[in-house]
Amino acid sequence: MAMWDITRAAVSKKVAEANLFALKVQGQNLFPAFQFDGNLVRRDVLHLVNLLRGSADAFAIAQWLRTPLNEAADRTPLELLDSGEGDLAEEMAKRSASRWSA
What we know:
By secondary structure, the chain is mainly alpha-helical. The protein has one domain (2-101). Helix content is 48%, strand content 10%. The protein has helices spanning 8-16, 43-52, 58-65, 77-82, 86-101, and strands spanning 23-25, 28-30, 36-37, 40-41. The strands form two sheets. The protein has a two-stranded antiparallel ribbon with strand order 1-2. Strands 3-4 form a two-stranded antiparallel sheet. It is globular.
């Protein structure tokens, strides 16, 4: 939090408003590094997270983001985002959310 000069309350608000992705472990919020680009939160990552939120818990979402997908030539959703293939990553997220909700 010091790196952003932000209060705990402000961080909690960002998490509650889905503007920051957190994993709760033993009552503490952990923030996966893959959602950051320097001091900025990656909006493309949050977009995928928010597509999946209603279908899976935070740990499943974090794992999905780091898991190679057969449909994407064994690249992870994060690799798709990094290579400019956000549309494909979004489609994969929608498909996964649909499968998980079924």
